[in-house]
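Structure (tokenized):
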């Protein structure tokens, strides 16, 4: 099935099951410990255990490696290094960094700290870890570049973020009646998922099965097959439950490649988990940015010049951090200049982290909008409303937004939050020893769709089984897909079983880029539509007139039980949803608004978020419980990004020194106050047959800016160097 025109009325519009607030159907398995994650699957034979040893330098080469003591240590079965690692090739997955990083132990060169330099397999994890410490390594260290600010002059235009220039920005900015020219910096950040990267690899002859923590099953299947030089048909990937990813599990790392290679050599299963320091330095992270935002407006606040420059860094061949992306679309202005420059850094690989680009880019853009509003003497909400636009600002009216309810979100949020009662000036309101401030920011995230397929099977007895490669990384995929299937076949939710995360099932979008629920639901929709036609025909009805309701298929007053149509063998259908050029004809994005109240301690500069509200317009909300959960998670991450999250680079040694969850600070329960989410009614018929849009990353995009703007309103200090820590506020007061 191809989605290439606006969605007509369809069975989803009944909203009998879809849009209803069902709790997660897999929840009992998770809270009772019965949902197996990658490291927990049972095996028919006792597994062996792998341990990855990371490099002790950031740039150079292994001059000598001696594994003699490790190989003779108790329980050790195998030690792999670049000297005995089987031959590999490069992957061609859609993630550029993966193409460069997929071979492991492929040579003596060290490109970043904690790059795998050895892999020990033993009968127990403790034996493998102890033996790894016996490996003797001598390095030839060469100078590396670890400081983004020192590389700004060498930055080049990256392939994945080409310049976007409309009109004559420089002249328009110079002529603007009111303007701001501001620089913001954001640090490296880690996805730090609760479940570590982990893999169990086992071979049955030439057939490889990997249970691994990954967000997109077909990406890792293809990548592993290419890396290991084996046919893709000989690789099975299972990722039925994934304990968070936030983008880092869009790639595969040393645990997957080395476990598979070692298992083949040993003829036994190998299970490997990356210990926490390796997750920070061996896997991916969100790269730091330096951003310059220039806005020029008329005295009434109408923007005419919009400029956003970003500098970021990565290993050669890696992705950029596209922090300018939202600036192309969020506000009007006929003269525009959006540019990214990327330099080479010898830090661990930078790649996707929740809302790549927007999460940090909106810290800059929405901070600059707040400062422009102050300079104009305008309400920050009003400034945003005056620059709302219903078409792609770069391409004009010929490319309208498929739906855009930014203005409604701002107005709804302002009323619900009590924005009119806000403090008008910094330090105007005080509650005991706390200055109280309000902040606002827009929310934006591009809506993406990906081809996705599924098999649906009507079983004897009238229940339904759904099978698809789609993953659930804590987002509610099991529940949402069950709701879609139940709606399409006229069943109750309890009559649907969903099976996910297995490469034996039809290829699906996977989880990432906020495309997961909408795209995978569309794949289930396509398969159910095919099954509906088959069942109607089997009942002797016209498929166009058939109505599925209450476990029956109806045509007029006549009906047939689905259990009767299933017979003894069941009936199944497999289909795939693909997409035309609607994303080119229409600019598609989710919109919203964030409102935050903070307290800043008048003596210490400590910041406490007191309450926050997000208003979200993201198409049809397939399940308000799971969608709300996604927004709350995004808001929590946004607060963390604004106030505490930062990987600290040792600029001499080239590593992230706070590589554990004790020193890499993320919000805990005590940091997060009363959060609320309001969903606006919206149906986007250009997005998919579900008329939904992505929501998982919209929730983080802009939250940090609302926090920062509230901190200024409370304290009178503008902090543009994130995160906002109390020392920066105290320094602002001293200045």
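Design, position by position:
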């Amino acid at each position: 099935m191809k989605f290439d025109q606006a969605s007509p009325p369809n069975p989803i519009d009944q909203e009998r099951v879809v849009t209803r607030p069902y709790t997660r159907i897999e929840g009992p398995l998770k809270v009772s410990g019965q949902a197996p994650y990658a490291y927990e699957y049972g095996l028919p034979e006792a597994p062996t255990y792998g341990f990855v040893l990371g490099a002790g330098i950031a740039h150079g080469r292994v001059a000598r490696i001696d594994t003699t003591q490790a190989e003779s240590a108790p329980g050790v079965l195998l030690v792999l290094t670049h000297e005995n690692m089987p031959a590999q090739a490069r992957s061609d997955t859609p993630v550029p960094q993966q193409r460069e990083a997929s071979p492991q132990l492929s040579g003596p060169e060290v490109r970043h700290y904690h790059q795998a330099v050895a892999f020990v397999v033993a009968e127990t994890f403790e034996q493998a870890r102890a033996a790894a410490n016996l490996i003797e390594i001598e390095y030839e260290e060469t100078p590396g570049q670890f400081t983004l600010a020192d590389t700004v002059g060498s930055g080049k235009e990256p392939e994945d973020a080409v310049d976007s220039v409309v009109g004559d920005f420089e002249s328009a900015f110079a002529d603007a009646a009111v303007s701001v020219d501001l620089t913001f910096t954001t640090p490296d950040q880690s996805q730090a998922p609760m479940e570590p990267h982990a893999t169990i690899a086992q071979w049955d002859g030439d057939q490889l099965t990997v249970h691994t923590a990954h967000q997109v099953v077909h990406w890792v299947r293809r990548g592993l097959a290419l890396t290991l030089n084996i046919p893709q048909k000989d690789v099975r990937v299972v990722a039925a439950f994934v304990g968070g990813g936030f983008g880092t599990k869009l790639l595969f790392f040393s645990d997957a490649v080395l476990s598979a290679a070692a298992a083949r050599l040993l003829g036994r299963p190998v299970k490997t988990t990356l210990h926490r320091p390796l997750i920070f330095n061996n896997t991916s992270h969100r790269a730091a940015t330096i951003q310059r935002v220039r806005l020029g407006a008329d005295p009434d606040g109408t923007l005419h010049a919009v400029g956003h420059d970003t500098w970021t860094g990565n290993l050669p061949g890696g992705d950029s951090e596209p922090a300018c992306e939202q600036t192309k679309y969020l506000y009007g202005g006929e003269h525009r200049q959006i540019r990214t420059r990327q330099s080479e850094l010898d830090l661990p690989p930078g790649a996707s982290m929740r809302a790549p680009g927007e999460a940090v880019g909106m810290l800059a853009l929405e901070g600059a909008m707040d400062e422009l509003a102050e300079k104009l003497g305008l309400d920050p909400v009003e400034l945003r409303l005056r620059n709302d636009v219903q078409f792609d600002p770069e391409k004009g009216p010929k490319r309208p937004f498929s739906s855009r309810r930014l203005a409604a979100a701002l107005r709804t949020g302002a009323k619900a939050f009590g924005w009119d009662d806000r403090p008008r000036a910094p330090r105007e309101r005080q509650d005991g020893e706390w200055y109280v401030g309000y902040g606002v920011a827009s929310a934006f995230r591009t809506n993406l769709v990906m081809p996705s397929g599924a098999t649906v099977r009507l079983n004897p007895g009238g229940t339904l089984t759904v099978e698809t490669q789609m993953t659930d990384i804590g987002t509610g995929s099991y529940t949402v897909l069950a709701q879609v299937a139940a709606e399409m076949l006229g069943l109750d939710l309890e009559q649907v079983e969903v099976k996910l995360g297995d490469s034996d099932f039809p290829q699906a979008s996977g989880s990432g880029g906020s495309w997961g629920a909408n795209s995978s639901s569309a794949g289930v929709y396509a398969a159910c539509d095919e099954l509906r036609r088959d069942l109607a025909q089997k009942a002797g009805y016209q498929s166009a007139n058939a109505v599925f309701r209450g476990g029956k298929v109806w045509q007029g007053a006549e009906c047939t039980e689905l259990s009767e149509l299933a017979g003894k063998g069941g009936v199944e259908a497999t289909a795939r949803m693909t997409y035309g050029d609607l994303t080119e004809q229409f600019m598609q994005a989710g919109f919203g608004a964030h409102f935050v109240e903070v307290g800043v301690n008048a003596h210490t500069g400590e910041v406490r978020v007191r309450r926050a509200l997000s208003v979200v317009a993201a198409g049809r909300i397939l399940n308000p419980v799971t969608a709300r959960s996604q927004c709350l998670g995004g808001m929590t991450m946004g607060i963390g990004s604004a106030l505490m999250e930062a990987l600290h680079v040792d600029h001499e040694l080239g590593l992230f020194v706070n590589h554990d969850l004790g020193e890499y600070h993320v919000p805990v329960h005590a940091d997060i106050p009363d959060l609320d989410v309001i969903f606006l009614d919206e149906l986007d018929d250009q997005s998919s047959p579900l008329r939904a849009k992505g929501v998982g990353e919209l929730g983080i995009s802009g939250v940090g800016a609302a926090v920062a703007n509230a901190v200024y309103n409370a304290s009178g200090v503008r902090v543009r160097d994130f995160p906002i820590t109390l020392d920066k506020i105290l320094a602002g007061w001293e200045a």
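Reviewer-requested clarification: The CA atoms of residues 102 and 577 lie 30 Å apart. The two ends are 63 Å apart (CA to CA).
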